[in-house]
Every structure is written in structure tokens, then in C-alpha cells.
Specification:
Structural class: alpha+beta
CATH class of one domain: Mainly Alpha
Number of strands: 13
Largest sheet: 3 strands, antiparallel
Distance between the termini: 47 Å
CATH architecture of one domain: Alpha Horseshoe
Strand order of the largest sheet: 1-2-3
Helix content: 25-40%
Shape: globular
């Protein structure tokens, strides 16, 4: 049960400099209803100002609330043909297609990369900062410092996702007004990729240095859900790693020529990996209140929110509807449970993702020493495989279930299963796999947003992976790289890298591949792989190949007296990726409104 006091509105707010009008607003938790709020009332005291800031928190995207997550735009998940990811994977993308935002499937889940939605949120942050400073006499100094740094973090967070999807954007730090600003102030040009990155990075550096925020909040803290120093430093370490990566830290970006440097640095900055490594190391060495949570099977529950590993999340409250609740458990997991239809089956791991999981001895299935048997592919796999993946013959038991089910995805003519692999267009998996990671074990899937598990943006495991990657790229596979990775592997009961590889010293290239695989497995279905494929500059190779599933059938189908045969089969689904798709287009509506905004290449 939630014990937080952040008051999040599911409402639309029209911000004007003369005041704030709140319409069609459904309150959440303990806010007082306000139908019309003037400046004098809005900024008269800390409680009233909190109402405004809390509404900004309410605009954080609940990425649980979409049947078409960012993972559907990768090689890890097989989504349905009726979602935007299916069109995108056909190469159907442009400034007027889906208004230039191909990943924006559901409003409260996908608008983190929608130009108009992001700038509305940025304007709210700018307004809050301006009004707090203008009315400073109404607030204590500690309140002003703390809340302004929260708003600065939120603004940096909003800028980050737009920057990752489109490149350099106009950096605006004050609320604009058509009545007082001239056209040169209103119609801003795009800042460069580097200028946008430097603004976000410097803002986060300042927030961390100010130390006005807490390092971490735990469950039960009144301010749990607000920005923290941990969130600021984790975001800083991530954007530095993103910027240092091959797609952008280059003089020849994959999108083509970049004379305005909107989507690359325009040269190679050799110190960026070292900078990212130092930032992530600072988190690991100075923020001791974070530690790896011991069991990922209970990580995503309402009772374990704000556990030792959670750094930054978006709150949800079950059975509340709107953008506050979550319907994540409706979209994924086995379609049929104990013979009854429960979920849409939208989150179905591909064979490529399944093959990325190690064997229990820590070796990849391609290693002859691993013990992998293609005709018994689900035996002796690592713990994360059993924690995350529902495979043919897997036991399936959630806390809300009265008994354990066994999920069969094989083609069985004698004992047919409703979850049998489907090569058509029904909800049943096309890959023969389902997932169970991040499914709330305590909530029964049902229509409506009944789930209350928070969406976790950052957790400590990602910081460890970010550090390992940046340190390996900057200095090679130092002992610190091994240490960071081994902490994650050991939670999955995997032997240390040194043990698994028999004391072999890995080269930088070998370690790079190991780190990339660890990221894929550890962070699967957390909407991370899309950004990795983009920043590593491998999307044009990975996403132009068909994905696969597992067809399991008996050699004697009439009576099942033969052997069960495992065949990896192509999905025959769209797999187009062209160079321009490394970035989204600028929406045509934005360019129509502001002729100073230049389009991304080949759109």
C-alpha cells in the first residue's frame, strides 16, 4: 500500500503567466480541489506551490501503460501487427506519420518523446522556477532550494528523452509569452547535439553539487517519489554514456552529413567514456544507501517499492484509473492461465533474447563447454532465465493463483494447449515464449488499470552496467569492470567471470561483447535495449534481420510416442531499418509552426 504524500494529478493544465487554470482535473491523494487558481493563491505558500509541482510529477510517463512498449521496436519482443511498432519495422516513418512520433502509442505511456508534450512539461518546470523566485518571500530558503532543484531535475529528465530521440533541440529555460516576447525569442532554432547534452549534464552536475535533495527515499518516506541526488547522478551517468557511444561521438554519424551538428558532436571526443566512468563510479562509491536487491522475482511488487536498488521511478496506485493506475499485467504474460483467457500476450520474447541467457555455469550457449543441448534447450540455464521467461513446460504460479499451472506452447495434437504457438494474429505467442518479469504477482490480470506497481526508470544494476561499459571503453577490462559485472552475475547464481572462463583474461573486445550481453539479459523488458541498439550503432545490422521463435512438435504427432523436436523458425515479420531511423523526425506540425526548426536528415 502506498504511504507517499506526493499529490499527482491526472489532469490537463493550461499555464499562462497571469495565472494557472486547472480543468477536467481528478485529484489524487490529499490535494484540495481547486477549479480556478490565481497567481496570488498559487504562490502564496509552500502547500499551494507544491500543488503546481506535484502536477508536473504527474506528467511523468507511466511506461507500464502501453501494449506496445519500446522493446517492441527491438529484436527482443514480438509485438502484434496492429501496433505502431509494426509499421515502424516496415520502415514507415516520417514527419507526418503518427505526427512524427512513432513510439507514441498511448498518451500517458509514450509522449516522453513527443515534441509538443515534452515542451509543455518543460514550460511548467520553467514557470515553477520563475514563480518560486519571484515570490521568494513566501517560502523558506530550504524549501526554495529543494523544490527548485526538483524542478530542474524534472526539466533535465524531460529534455533527455527528447534529445535521445531527435538530437539537438531548442534549450529554453524561461516561460515564453506571445504577449511580451518578440518572434526571435519565440521561434528558437535547434541547439546542437552537444549544446543540448551540455545543458542537461551541467544542470544535473549542479543539482548533485548543491546537495539540496536527499540521496534516496525509502518506502514510507513522505517525499518518496520526488527527485533525489541518486536520480540526478544516475541520469547524468547515463546521458554521458549515451553521448560517448559510437552513433553520436563521431565526425560521421550514421544518419549522414551533419553540418549543423544537430545529431552528433561532429568529431570524436576521446574523454567522454572516462567522464561517464567517473560519474557512474561516483554513484557507486559515494551513495552507499543503494545496494542490489537480492531477488528480482519480488522486485516489482507494491510491497517492495523503493527497495535498496530503486533509484528513480514513476508512481502508480492500483484501482484508480486514468494515468495513475497501471494495466501492465493485462498486456503481458501467458494468454491463458489455468485454461482461462487473462492477457493480451503482447510481450513475447524472441528466440534471439532467449539465446542470450547464459547456462548455469556462466557460459553462453554457443560455447562448447557450456553443456547446452539444442534438443533440451531449457535445462541448466541461468536463474534469470527461469525468473523472466515462460517457456514450453514452464511452471507458472503467481500469488493470486490458487494452484500452479504448466504452460505449454508446443504443437500437441494429443493434448492441445490454448497457449500453443500461433503463427496467425491471435493474442497467443508467435515465438512460443511469454515473459513474467515485472508482472505484479499479487494482482490478478483484469480490465482497467488495477495494478499499482511503480514504473522504475533507473535501478542500481544499470549503474553497475553503465560503469562497466564506460570503464572498459576508457581503460580496457580493468579489475573494477570484472567486479561490477560479477555483482550482477552473482545475484543470478552465476559464477564469477574469472571462474566461468577458466581464468582467461578477456580482451577489451571480448569484454565489450560480454557487457552488451549482460545488459540485454539483466535489463530485458525494461525499455533499455532500443537505446543500446541506437547508441552502439548496430541497429542497421540487428534490426534488418528477421527474428525467430521456437516450434516444438512430436515426430509422431498422432500419439506423441516419438521425440519432441525443437526447431528455430523465422517469424517472417517486418525487419526494415534505414539510416535515418537512428533518430525520429521532427514532427511536421512543429516545422509548420516554427520555420527556424530544421528537419533531421532524409525525412
Amino acid at each position: 500500500m502506498k504511504t507517499i504524500n506526493i499529490k499527482i494529478f491526472s489532469c490537463s493544465v493550461l499555464l499562462v503567466l497571469s495565472g494557472v487554470s486547472i480543468t477536467s482535473c481528478k485529484k489524487f491523494l490529499d490535494n484540495e480541489p481547486r477549479n480556478s487558481v490565481t497567481d496570488a493563491v498559487q504562490w502564496k505558500d509552500e502547500s499551494s506551490a507544491n500543488t503546481f509541482l506535484n502536477d508536473i510529477y504527474g506528467q511523468l510517463n507511466n511506461l507500464n501503460n502501453t501494449p506496445d512498449p519500446l522493446d517492441s521496436f527491438t529484436d527482443d519482443n514480438d509485438g502484434g501487427p496492429y501496433w505502431k511498432s509494426w509499421r515502424w519495422k516496415q520502415g514507415i516513418i516520417g514527419p507526418s506519420v503518427e505526427d512524427g512520433t512513432p513510439q507514441n502509442n498511448d498518451g500517458d505511456a509514450g509522449s516522453y518523446q513527443d515534441w509538443g508534450s515534452v515542451y509543455v512539461r518543460i514550460r511548467r518546470c520553467n514557470t515553477f522556477i520563475q514563480k518560486i523566485n519571484e515570490n521568494a518571500a513566501n517560502f523558506s530558503e530550504s524549501y526554495r532550494k529543494k523544490r527548485i532543484d526538483e524542478a530542474r531535475f524534472l526539466r533535465a529528465f524531460f529534455y533527455t528523452y527528447l534529445w535521445m530521440h531527435v538530437g539537438g533541440v531548442p534549450v529554453i529555460t524561461e516561460p515564453l509569452d506571445r504577449n511580451t516576447n518578440d518572434p526571435s525569442q519565440l521561434y528558437r532554432s535547434r541547439n546542437t547535439f552537444e549544446e543540448t547534452f551540455s545543458f542537461i549534464d551541467s544542470e544535473l552536475e549542479s543539482i548533485v553539487s548543491n546537495k539540496n535533495l536527499e540521496v534516496k527515499y525509502n518506502g514510507g518516506n513522505a517525499d518518496a517519489g520526488r527527485a533525489t541526488l541518486g536520480a540526478a547522478l544516475a541520469l547524468k551517468g547515463w546521458i554521458e554514456l549515451f553521448a560517448a557511444s559510437p552513433a553520436f561521438n563521431t565526425s560521421s554519424p550514421p544518419m549522414g552529413g551533419d553540418p549543423n551538428k544537430f545529431y552528433s558532436f561532429g568529431n570524436v571526443k576521446a574523454d567522454l567514456y572516462a567522464k561517464a566512468a567517473a560519474t557512474n563510479k561516483k554513484f557507486l562509491t559515494e551513495f552507499g544507501s543503494y545496494s542490489l536487491y537480492p531477488d528480482l522475482t519480488t522486485f516489482w511488487t507494491e510491497g517492495t517499492e523503493y527497495n535498496t536498488e530503486v533509484i528513480w521511478d514513476r508512481q502508480a496506485v492500483g484501482n484508480t484509473g486514468g494515468s495513475v493506475g497501471s494495466d501492465y499485467i493485462l498486456f503481458g504474460g501467458p494468454v491463458y492461465i489455468l485454461g482461462q483467457y487473462f492477457t493480451w500476450g503482447n510481450y513475447c520474447p524472441t528466440q534471439e533474447l532467449v539465446d542470450a541467457f547464459r547456462m548455469e555455469n556462466g557460459l553462453p550457449i554457443t560455447d562448447p563447454r557450456s553443456g547446452y543441448d539444442p534438443q533440451h534447450p531449457y535445462l541448466k540455464r541461468e536463474k534469470r532465465f527461469y525468473d523472466f521467461i515462460v517457456y514450453d513446460g514452464a511452471p507458472y504460479k503467481q500469488n493470486w493463483m490458487t494452484t500452479t499451472d504448466t504452460v505449454y506452447t508446443r504443437i500437441d495434437k494429443v493434448h492441445p494447449s490454448k497457449n500453443e504457438i500461433d503463427f496467425g494474429s491471435s493474442d497467443v505467442s508467435n515465438t512460443a515464449y511469454y515473459f513474467k518479469k515485472r508482472l505484479n504477482p499479487d494482482r490478478r490480470p483484469a480490465g482497467g488499470r488495477v495494478d499499482g506497481v511503480n514504473y522504475v526508470y533507473f535501478r542500481l544494476a544499470e549503474v553497475l552496467l553503465n560503469y562497466a561499459e564506460a570503464e572498459n571503453e576508457a581503460n580496457g577490462p580493468t579489475p573494477e569492470v570484472y567486479t561490477a559485472l560479477n555483482k550482477i552475475r552473482q545475484r543470478s547464481n552465476l559464477p564469477a567471470i574469472e571462474t566461468a572462463y577458466g581464468g582467461q583474461s578477456l580482451s577489451q573486445l571480448q569484454m565489450r561483447e560480454l557487457i552488451r550481453n549482460e545488459r540485454r539479459v539483466e535489463l530485458c523488458f525494461e525499455n533499455k535495449r532500443y537505446y543500446d541498439l541506437i547508441r552502439w550503432r548496430i541497429a542497421e545490422d540487428v534490426l534488418t534481420k528477421d527474428r525467430h521463435g521456437m516450434k516444438i512438435s512430436n515426430t509422431s504427432p498422432a500419439d506423441n510416442r516419438g521425440a519432441w523436436k525443437y526447431e528455430i523458425v523465422p517469424l517472417n515479420h517486418p525487419h526494415v531499418f534505414t539510416a535515418k531511423m537512428y533518430l525520429n523526425p521532427i514532427p511536421q506540425s512543429v516545422i509548420d509552426q516554427n520555420p527556424n526548426i530544421k528537419q533531421n536528415p532524409n525525412y
